[in-house]
Amino acid sequence: MDTLKANVLKKAIESGSNKLFNNKDKIDALNVFPVPDGDTGSNMASTLQKAFKEIENQNYKKVKDLIENLSKNMFLSARGNSGVILSQIFKGFSNAWNKLESLSPKDIVRGFELAYKTAYESVLKPVEGTILTIIRETYEELSKLKITSNTTINKIFDVVVKAANKSLKNTPNLLPILKEVGVVDSGGNGLVLIFEGMKSALEDKFIQIDTESTKPFSTVNNVEVYSGEFGYCTELIIKINNLEKFSKNKFVSQLEKIGDSMVVVNDKEILKLHIHTVTPGKVLNIGQKIGEFLTVKIENMTEQANHTKSNVIDNHNTNKPEIMKKNAIISCNSGNGFIKIMKELECDYIIEGGQSNNPSAQDIIEAIDNVNAENTLILPNNSNIILAAQQASKIRSNKNIHIIPTKNQVEGITAIMNYSSELDMENNLKEIEQSLKNLIVGEITQSIKDTKIDGIKIKKDSYLMIMQHKIIDTKKDLMSAAKTLIDKMIKSKKRPELLVIYYGNNISQLETEELENYVLNKYDVEVQIQNGDQYIYDLIFGLE
Question: Residue 300 pLDDT > 70, yes or no?
Fold first, then answer.
């Protein structure tokens, strides 16, 4: 094959998208941080697959029309940093091929050149050892190729796949954290899979979606809510009566017969259970046999899902204001507690999403359009949403948009609390920036694997202490980890005044009050308790 026509390129991209989708869970598992929030594969797969669905029923005779429409839709569907960078790679392809009906080998090489340059330009501080390195080094290998009249498209993609794999294997040598943890770059791996899937299609080995080995995307969108029978999310905290006779294996085996999505953790005589079941009464009966209930929480997940749907509607005014507002604030939040807090602080529009469920650029664009303001402040509240927010602001370049690079929900709360409608935007931005400098954030979550980061050995199921986005230590039990982290936070700050404790959906009020008493008895610091109802992080602390 000496030229690549639009219909063949479209089939190749679909094959690449399918291969990425089939392996998205494996890419998610490459997450460096040992917490259950790896979403690189899901973000990349969602970005490409949703964009492709917009064009899959279109017949294209010219490459320029195909790649332009695909690139435009990827720009809108981009999720997370990896999805945004992937969309920029395809934007580079589109810029290179914007006048072409079909592609020659030289055209493809030119496409890779603009792809890497566009991707690098989209990131403020490019980091080597990432997806950026993969696309750049792939082009560099292609540029060495002496293209003649005998050079085929298949030969070009042979070089692409070989070079991309070579670059991927070298990423740990460029990014020390990858070498320390023992993984390759997850975003780079996703890009390699796309190229491999495209190559397969060009060799008449089209990759189909493997529906049996992969789970669909788990995000809740703005128009659909599953109405089938979810059952009940049942959470118990039990004080075990006879610890010597208690068999955790026997307890688990009984529950496995009546539910799934089960998590059982016990620390001495205290046992915590999370399970999804259609018969919560049977779970209570089994639990009561081993001890006394300290807390019981049963939620109908069908109702919960529909409540989430209503939250999406209630979190913002769905009627666009006829008169343009002076200022408006948009915030990305997850956990009903955090969402409630932001609503009480009069946030104009809440995009429900965050860690492990990143909103797309399109979601943010819809929010910008909805608030209809002269000045719009966006609080991403997650480092993986900042690029999507920047992408959205480029599309709405006719509006005055300010992105506050908040990396967690506590920073978002601090930002909105230091905003005043009486100040002009310049002074508001200064006040918010200063308030964030005075804030220390700590987080507690459980490790999902054995690993080593920054010299700290981490065991699976141990509790990670994270301060200012960095793991500082681990402990075997939650309360020890929480108290140690609080100590370190308070000692690191001159004249601390207020500690706010946000507890997640797996923590009881009693445990949180124990931490409050610990701080009040040891330090001259005011303590507030808030129910964040967040996932992933059991406890989040904000110290001012």
Answer: no
